[in-house]
Amino acid sequence: MRRLLFLNGIKAFEAAARTGSFAAAGHELNVSAAAISRMVHLLEERLGVALFERKANRLVTTAAGRAYQSGLTPIFDALASLTAQVTAASTRVLTVGVGPTFAMKWMIPHLAEFRKAEPDIEVRITTGGIAVPFGDDWSCGIKLGDGEWPGLVAEPLFAADLMPVCTARLANTLKRPADLKGPSLIRVAHSPDDWPSWLKAAGVPRLTARGPEFQFYGQALQAASDGLGIAMGIRPYIDDDLAAGRLVAPFALSVPKGMRWYLVYRGFHAEQRDFAAFRRWIIRAAAEPAAARKGARSAG
Fold it and tell me: Any idea where the HTH lysR-type domain is (predicted)?
Protein backbone atom coordinates (compact mmCIF):
# COMPACT_ATOMS: atom_id res chain seq x y z
CA MET A 1 0.00 0.00 0.00
CA ARG A 2 1.38 3.43 -1.00
CA ARG A 3 2.18 5.65 2.00
CA LEU A 4 2.31 9.38 1.19
CA LEU A 5 4.01 11.24 4.01
CA PHE A 6 2.77 14.75 4.86
CA LEU A 7 2.13 16.09 1.35
CA ASN A 8 1.67 19.67 2.52
CA GLY A 9 5.09 19.60 4.10
CA ILE A 10 6.62 18.09 0.97
CA LYS A 11 5.04 20.81 -1.20
CA ALA A 12 6.28 23.49 1.19
CA PHE A 13 9.81 22.10 1.19
CA GLU A 14 9.99 21.74 -2.60
CA ALA A 15 8.79 25.31 -3.15
CA ALA A 16 11.19 26.72 -0.54
CA ALA A 17 14.15 24.78 -1.94
CA ARG A 18 13.33 25.78 -5.53
CA THR A 19 12.70 29.48 -4.83
CA GLY A 20 15.36 29.87 -2.13
CA SER A 21 13.17 31.33 0.61
CA PHE A 22 10.19 30.64 2.84
CA ALA A 23 8.67 33.99 1.78
CA ALA A 24 8.76 33.17 -1.94
CA ALA A 25 7.40 29.68 -1.29
CA GLY A 26 4.61 31.16 0.83
CA HIS A 27 3.66 33.55 -1.97
CA GLU A 28 3.57 30.69 -4.47
CA LEU A 29 1.42 28.48 -2.22
CA ASN A 30 -0.74 31.33 -0.84
CA VAL A 31 0.29 30.88 2.78
CA SER A 32 2.57 32.85 5.09
CA ALA A 33 6.33 32.37 5.29
CA ALA A 34 5.85 31.27 8.90
CA ALA A 35 3.44 28.53 7.78
CA ILE A 36 5.99 27.27 5.24
CA SER A 37 8.66 27.23 7.95
CA ARG A 38 6.43 25.23 10.31
CA MET A 39 5.48 22.68 7.65
CA VAL A 40 9.11 22.18 6.65
CA HIS A 41 10.12 21.77 10.30
CA LEU A 42 7.41 19.14 10.81
CA LEU A 43 8.54 17.34 7.67
CA GLU A 44 12.14 17.29 8.92
CA GLU A 45 10.94 15.86 12.24
CA ARG A 46 8.93 13.13 10.52
CA LEU A 47 11.79 12.26 8.17
CA GLY A 48 14.41 12.50 10.89
CA VAL A 49 16.62 14.41 8.43
CA ALA A 50 17.66 18.06 8.26
CA LEU A 51 16.72 19.49 4.87
CA PHE A 52 17.89 23.09 5.36
CA GLU A 53 20.66 24.94 7.13
CA ARG A 54 19.04 28.11 8.49
CA LYS A 55 21.39 31.03 7.83
CA ALA A 56 20.82 34.61 8.97
CA ASN A 57 19.60 35.93 5.61
CA ARG A 58 19.13 32.86 3.44
CA LEU A 59 18.28 29.19 3.26
CA VAL A 60 20.87 26.60 2.30
CA THR A 61 19.78 23.07 1.48
CA THR A 62 21.69 20.22 3.04
CA ALA A 63 22.98 17.36 0.92
CA ALA A 64 19.83 15.42 1.82
CA GLY A 65 17.70 18.43 0.96
CA ARG A 66 19.33 18.85 -2.44
CA ALA A 67 18.81 15.20 -3.26
CA TYR A 68 15.18 15.33 -2.12
CA GLN A 69 14.38 18.49 -4.08
CA SER A 70 16.06 17.23 -7.27
CA GLY A 71 13.66 14.29 -7.23
CA LEU A 72 10.56 16.16 -6.09
CA THR A 73 10.54 19.02 -8.61
CA PRO A 74 10.24 16.78 -11.71
CA ILE A 75 7.45 14.86 -9.94
CA PHE A 76 5.45 18.03 -9.25
CA ASP A 77 6.09 19.28 -12.80
CA ALA A 78 4.88 15.98 -14.21
CA LEU A 79 1.78 16.11 -11.98
CA ALA A 80 0.99 19.65 -13.15
CA SER A 81 1.52 18.63 -16.77
CA LEU A 82 -0.75 15.59 -16.37
CA THR A 83 -3.45 17.74 -14.81
CA ALA A 84 -3.18 20.25 -17.66
CA GLN A 85 -3.48 17.47 -20.22
CA VAL A 86 -6.56 16.00 -18.52
CA THR A 87 -8.33 19.35 -18.28
CA ALA A 88 -7.29 20.54 -21.76
CA ALA A 89 -9.98 18.46 -23.42
CA SER A 90 -12.77 20.15 -21.44
CA THR A 91 -11.57 23.75 -21.42
CA ARG A 92 -9.79 25.84 -24.04
CA VAL A 93 -9.21 29.06 -22.14
CA LEU A 94 -5.89 30.85 -21.79
CA THR A 95 -5.49 33.55 -19.15
CA VAL A 96 -2.78 36.07 -20.04
CA GLY A 97 -1.54 38.52 -17.41
CA VAL A 98 -0.37 41.88 -18.78
CA GLY A 99 -0.10 45.50 -17.73
CA PRO A 100 -2.95 47.84 -18.73
CA THR A 101 -0.95 49.71 -21.39
CA PHE A 102 0.39 46.50 -22.95
CA ALA A 103 -3.18 45.21 -23.13
CA MET A 104 -4.41 48.41 -24.79
CA LYS A 105 -1.49 49.19 -27.10
CA TRP A 106 -0.44 45.71 -28.26
CA MET A 107 -2.34 42.67 -27.02
CA ILE A 108 -5.91 43.71 -27.82
CA PRO A 109 -5.09 45.20 -31.26
CA HIS A 110 -3.32 41.98 -32.27
CA LEU A 111 -5.60 39.43 -30.65
CA ALA A 112 -7.73 39.10 -33.78
CA GLU A 113 -4.69 37.62 -35.53
CA PHE A 114 -4.52 34.82 -32.98
CA ARG A 115 -8.29 34.26 -33.01
CA LYS A 116 -8.15 33.91 -36.79
CA ALA A 117 -5.45 31.26 -36.48
CA GLU A 118 -6.98 29.50 -33.44
CA PRO A 119 -10.72 30.26 -33.34
CA ASP A 120 -11.45 27.56 -30.74
CA ILE A 121 -9.09 28.98 -28.11
CA GLU A 122 -10.47 31.70 -25.85
CA VAL A 123 -7.95 34.23 -24.53
CA ARG A 124 -8.78 36.07 -21.33
CA ILE A 125 -6.68 39.10 -20.49
CA THR A 126 -6.15 40.10 -16.89
CA THR A 127 -4.36 43.35 -16.07
CA GLY A 128 -2.75 44.89 -13.04
CA GLY A 129 0.68 46.15 -13.99
CA ILE A 130 4.22 44.94 -14.47
CA ALA A 131 4.88 44.58 -10.74
CA VAL A 132 1.91 42.28 -10.10
CA PRO A 133 3.05 38.75 -9.10
CA PHE A 134 2.42 35.87 -11.48
CA GLY A 135 -1.18 34.80 -10.82
CA ASP A 136 -2.09 31.22 -9.93
CA ASP A 137 -4.75 31.23 -12.65
CA TRP A 138 -2.49 32.66 -15.35
CA SER A 139 -1.52 30.51 -18.33
CA CYS A 140 1.27 33.01 -18.97
CA GLY A 141 2.19 36.64 -18.50
CA ILE A 142 4.04 39.35 -20.40
CA LYS A 143 6.43 41.26 -18.18
CA LEU A 144 9.06 43.94 -18.52
CA GLY A 145 12.25 43.15 -16.64
CA ASP A 146 15.61 41.41 -16.61
CA GLY A 147 14.27 37.92 -17.35
CA GLU A 148 14.86 36.61 -13.83
CA TRP A 149 11.66 35.40 -12.17
CA PRO A 150 12.25 32.41 -9.85
CA GLY A 151 10.19 29.39 -10.76
CA LEU A 152 9.16 30.78 -14.17
CA VAL A 153 10.39 30.29 -17.73
CA ALA A 154 11.10 33.65 -19.39
CA GLU A 155 11.42 33.97 -23.17
CA PRO A 156 12.33 37.35 -24.72
CA LEU A 157 9.74 39.02 -26.95
CA PHE A 158 10.48 42.71 -27.52
CA ALA A 159 13.36 45.08 -26.91
CA ALA A 160 12.11 47.95 -24.75
CA ASP A 161 13.69 50.81 -26.70
CA LEU A 162 12.86 54.42 -25.84
CA MET A 163 12.09 57.06 -28.48
CA PRO A 164 10.28 60.43 -28.21
CA VAL A 165 7.03 60.64 -30.17
CA CYS A 166 4.55 63.41 -30.96
CA THR A 167 2.19 64.66 -33.66
CA ALA A 168 3.59 65.41 -37.11
CA ARG A 169 2.71 69.08 -36.66
CA LEU A 170 4.79 69.35 -33.49
CA ALA A 171 7.62 67.28 -35.00
CA ASN A 172 7.97 69.84 -37.81
CA THR A 173 9.11 72.41 -35.22
CA LEU A 174 11.90 70.15 -33.93
CA LYS A 175 15.09 70.05 -35.96
CA ARG A 176 17.47 68.85 -33.24
CA PRO A 177 17.20 67.64 -29.61
CA ALA A 178 18.26 71.10 -28.37
CA ASP A 179 14.93 72.41 -29.69
CA LEU A 180 13.07 70.45 -27.02
CA LYS A 181 11.60 72.41 -24.11
CA GLY A 182 11.17 70.98 -20.62
CA PRO A 183 7.47 71.92 -20.17
CA SER A 184 6.51 70.07 -23.35
CA LEU A 185 8.08 66.76 -22.31
CA ILE A 186 5.30 64.46 -21.05
CA ARG A 187 6.31 62.20 -18.17
CA VAL A 188 5.28 58.75 -16.87
CA ALA A 189 5.25 58.59 -13.07
CA HIS A 190 6.64 55.07 -12.67
CA SER A 191 9.46 55.59 -15.19
CA PRO A 192 11.26 58.78 -14.13
CA ASP A 193 14.56 57.73 -15.71
CA ASP A 194 13.26 57.50 -19.29
CA TRP A 195 13.72 61.14 -20.30
CA PRO A 196 17.07 61.62 -18.51
CA SER A 197 18.46 58.51 -20.24
CA TRP A 198 17.37 59.62 -23.69
CA LEU A 199 18.36 63.29 -23.20
CA LYS A 200 21.83 62.26 -22.03
CA ALA A 201 22.29 60.06 -25.12
CA ALA A 202 21.02 62.92 -27.30
CA GLY A 203 23.65 65.31 -25.91
CA VAL A 204 21.31 67.55 -23.90
CA PRO A 205 21.68 66.15 -20.36
CA ARG A 206 20.91 69.49 -18.68
CA LEU A 207 17.39 69.60 -20.08
CA THR A 208 14.77 68.49 -17.53
CA ALA A 209 11.34 67.09 -18.40
CA ARG A 210 8.70 69.21 -16.69
CA GLY A 211 5.61 68.46 -18.72
CA PRO A 212 2.34 66.84 -17.60
CA GLU A 213 2.78 63.58 -15.68
CA PHE A 214 0.63 60.50 -16.15
CA GLN A 215 0.44 57.17 -14.36
CA PHE A 216 0.77 54.92 -17.41
CA TYR A 217 2.51 55.02 -20.79
CA GLY A 218 -0.83 54.63 -22.53
CA GLN A 219 -2.13 57.85 -21.02
CA ALA A 220 1.06 59.72 -21.95
CA LEU A 221 0.90 58.46 -25.55
CA GLN A 222 -2.73 59.49 -25.84
CA ALA A 223 -1.80 62.95 -24.59
CA ALA A 224 0.92 63.14 -27.25
CA SER A 225 -1.58 62.07 -29.94
CA ASP A 226 -3.84 64.91 -28.79
CA GLY A 227 -1.01 67.43 -29.26
CA LEU A 228 -0.35 68.05 -25.57
CA GLY A 229 3.39 67.58 -25.95
CA ILE A 230 6.10 65.01 -26.61
CA ALA A 231 5.90 61.64 -24.90
CA MET A 232 8.68 59.17 -24.34
CA GLY A 233 7.53 56.18 -26.32
CA ILE A 234 8.55 52.63 -25.49
CA ARG A 235 8.45 49.71 -27.91
CA PRO A 236 6.25 47.91 -28.73
CA TYR A 237 3.65 50.42 -27.49
CA ILE A 238 4.49 52.92 -30.23
CA ASP A 239 5.02 50.57 -33.17
CA ASP A 240 1.46 50.56 -34.50
CA ASP A 241 1.01 54.31 -33.92
CA LEU A 242 4.20 55.02 -35.88
CA ALA A 243 3.22 52.64 -38.68
CA ALA A 244 -0.23 54.23 -38.94
CA GLY A 245 1.09 57.80 -38.75
CA ARG A 246 -0.85 58.65 -35.60
CA LEU A 247 2.47 59.56 -34.00
CA VAL A 248 5.87 60.33 -35.49
CA ALA A 249 9.39 60.17 -34.12
CA PRO A 250 11.02 63.59 -34.55
CA PHE A 251 14.49 62.09 -34.00
CA ALA A 252 15.98 58.80 -35.16
CA LEU A 253 17.76 58.18 -31.86
CA SER A 254 16.38 55.31 -29.76
CA VAL A 255 17.86 54.29 -26.42
CA PRO A 256 17.57 50.87 -24.73
CA LYS A 257 15.59 51.05 -21.50
CA GLY A 258 17.85 48.41 -19.97
CA MET A 259 15.09 45.78 -19.80
CA ARG A 260 13.14 43.61 -22.23
CA TRP A 261 9.62 42.29 -22.56
CA TYR A 262 9.33 38.58 -21.78
CA LEU A 263 6.73 35.86 -22.13
CA VAL A 264 6.73 34.20 -18.71
CA TYR A 265 5.08 30.92 -17.74
CA ARG A 266 5.46 27.87 -15.55
CA GLY A 267 7.42 25.11 -17.25
CA PHE A 268 4.65 22.51 -17.31
CA HIS A 269 2.50 24.76 -19.53
CA ALA A 270 4.92 24.22 -22.41
CA GLU A 271 3.39 20.78 -23.03
CA GLN A 272 -0.20 22.08 -23.00
CA ARG A 273 -1.51 22.21 -26.57
CA ASP A 274 -3.39 25.52 -26.46
CA PHE A 275 -0.63 27.38 -24.66
CA ALA A 276 1.92 26.00 -27.12
CA ALA A 277 -0.16 27.48 -29.98
CA PHE A 278 -0.32 30.86 -28.24
CA ARG A 279 3.41 30.78 -27.50
CA ARG A 280 4.28 30.08 -31.14
CA TRP A 281 1.99 32.87 -32.30
CA ILE A 282 3.22 35.60 -29.94
CA ILE A 283 6.91 34.81 -30.50
CA ARG A 284 6.34 35.02 -34.26
CA ALA A 285 4.25 38.20 -33.94
CA ALA A 286 6.88 39.86 -31.75
CA ALA A 287 9.53 39.19 -34.39
CA GLU A 288 7.53 40.79 -37.22
CA PRO A 289 8.00 44.50 -38.02
CA ALA A 290 4.96 46.61 -37.20
CA ALA A 291 4.58 47.66 -40.84
CA ALA A 292 4.39 44.03 -41.96
CA ARG A 293 1.70 43.26 -39.38
CA LYS A 294 -0.30 46.33 -40.42
CA GLY A 295 -0.14 45.26 -44.06
CA ALA A 296 -1.20 41.72 -43.22
CA ARG A 297 -4.23 42.97 -41.26
CA SER A 298 -5.23 45.34 -44.10
CA ALA A 299 -4.97 42.53 -46.65
CA GLY A 300 -7.17 40.33 -44.48
Answer: 7-62
